[in-house]
Design a protein that fits this description.
467 residues; 16 helices; 13 strands; two-stranded antiparallel ribbon; alpha/beta; eleven-stranded mixed sheet; 14% strand; Amidase signature (AS) enzymes
Length: 467
């Protein structure tokens, strides 16, 4: 119910539904399922007032009229709190809105609240938030995925129609897979990062989580496109709502991935079944060699933590945010504020990033990781010169239980092993609900990647797969 914008808008036109009724429906769901901890703040009164205003609007209705959405707690919304789910920004109120928020509001979307996430978007399970874990609504003993776990659960549990997350190494796609919804990371530079609290600037990308491809298309048509406030934006405008011709595709997959250690048997089986189904449908699906699998996670964490070390330097107890009440001098303000304000995982990544950027280790780690990033880009360019898409599992496992990987950071980092490639190369990727595990009944996600700026083609084929 109310999981499609086309359906909602049609019901409003027919007079069977109002925006106020719609908002109250989602507010009730949020209250009934508050134990999931998906929202850090719900804009109840504001959302109702906006719904009243939209119901009074008789003409010039926006493209997203009536779309009830949630935004991740690292996306700025003027005069609203934004904390990146960190104690160091607790209570901070944004003085401006992100380009994403401005474009959503301009097309008559309704923002119902801000969602919980891993602190500063660092995590694969949503266990790193300063404000508690987000529970997977299909099994509350299991994680929602990270870092955009709150955004994924908000769509999964019908707390809104669509939500927005940020994807640095899989932080939209991996929770989407764990929660059985669609999660999309656009080509780097297609959606403005202005107003997104940075983790790793050359990796971060805002994207939507939805129930269907049609809603995703409509959203992307609104939020994509050049922005004078983001110098890394592409000037190329992708026509997201224009559907291309249906044809047989050439799809590559990596045997190295399907045979890698740590893959759950049912995930491998589900992907192989899908490969066979695509072949039966007339598509060419072939294995290609990929020799860099073991280097993806090390390269990603060297480069992303280096950028995080720089980006998070501003949170120091001086400029804004948390300041330790125990500090007695300027040195202690810096040390105690950051020590008390940041969580363990954020501290780990800042320390790692500072280490790889240090004079004695820069060439040994950071320099080599940058060279590998170029090799990966060249490798994918070569693959996409022959194939339309690359198919992989989104994650090697289904949603795991809370605490299962907390004491093993390497195992936790490997949850993103298949998603980081897209961020390292800037290419678009999407996670689609593929199947369910017969063992634990949790969703299995299928990831599709396309060449840079081939987002429209990616969504066309994704829509075919979802039929």
């Amino acid at each position: 119910m109310y999981d499609s914008l086309a359906y909602v808008q049609n019901e409003i036109v027919l007079g069977n539904l109002s925006c106020v009724t719609l908002v109250r429906y989602f507010l009730k769901n949020i209250e009934d399922k508050k134990q999931l901890n998906a929202f850090l703040e719900v804009f109840s009164e504001e959302a109702i007032q906006r719904a009243i205003s939209l119901d009074q609007k008789k003409e010039n209705k926006g493209k997203l009229f009536g779309l009830v959405v949630a935004i991740k707690d690292n996306i700025c919304f003027k005069n609203h709190k934004v904390s990146a789910s960190s104690k160091i920004l607790e209570g901070f109120v944004s003085i401006y809105s992100s380009t994403l928020v401005e474009r959503l509001l301009a097309e008559d979307a309704i923002i119902i609240g801000r969602t919980n996430c891993d602190e500063f978007a660092m995590g694969s399970s949503n266990e790193n938030s300063a404000f508690g874990n987000v529970l997977n609504s299909l099994d509350e003993t299991r994680v929602s995925g990270g870092s955009s776990g709150g955004s994924a659960v908000a769509v999964q549990a019908k707390l809104c129609m669509a939500s927005f997350g940020s994807d640095t190494g899989g932080s939209i796609r991996q929770p989407a897979a764990f929660c059985g919804v669609i999660g999309y990371k656009p080509t780097y530079g297609v959606v403005s990062r202005y107003g997104l609290i940075a983790y790793a600037s050359s990796f971060d990308q805002i994207g939507p989580l939805t129930n269907n491809i049609d809603d995703l298309r409509r959203i992307m048509e609104v939020i994509s496109g050049a922005d004078e406030y983001d110098a890394t934006m592409s000037t190329h405008k992708i026509p997201f709502t224009t559907k291309g011709e249906t044809k047989k595709m050439k799809i590559a997959y990596f045997n190295e991935i399907l045979n890698s250690a740590g893959m759950e048997e049912e995930v491998t089986s589900a992907v192989r079944t899908k490969i066979e189904a695509l072949q039966m449908a007339g598509h060419i699906v072939e294995p290609v060699e990929f020799k860099y699998l073991d280097y993806l996670i090390p390269a990603y964490y060297v480069l992303s933590t280096a950028e995080a070390s720089s980006n998070l330097a501003r949170f120091d107890g001086i400029h804004y945010g948390y300041r330790s009440p125990l500090a007695k001098n300027i040195d202690e303000v810096y040390k105690k504020s950051r020590s008390e304000g940041f969580g363990k995982e954020v501290k780990n990544r800042i320390m790692l990033g500072t280490f790889v950027l240090s004079a004695g280790y820069y060439d040994a780690y950071y320099g080599k990781a940058q060279k590998l990033r170029r090799l990966l880009q060249d490798n994918l360019k070569e693959i996409f010169s022959t194939y339309d898409f690359i198919l992989t599992p989104t994650s090697p496992t289904t949603a795991f239980k809370f605490g299962e990987k907390g004491n093993d950071p390497i195992a936790m980092y490997l949850a993103d092993i298949f998603t980081v490639l897209s961020n390292l190369t800037g290419t678009p990727a999407i996670s689609l609900p593929l199947a369910k595990s017969s063992e634990n009944n949790m969703p299995i996600g299928l990831q599709l990647m396309a060449a840079s700026m081939q987002d429209e083609k990616l969504l066309d084929f994704s829509e075919e797969l979802m039929k």
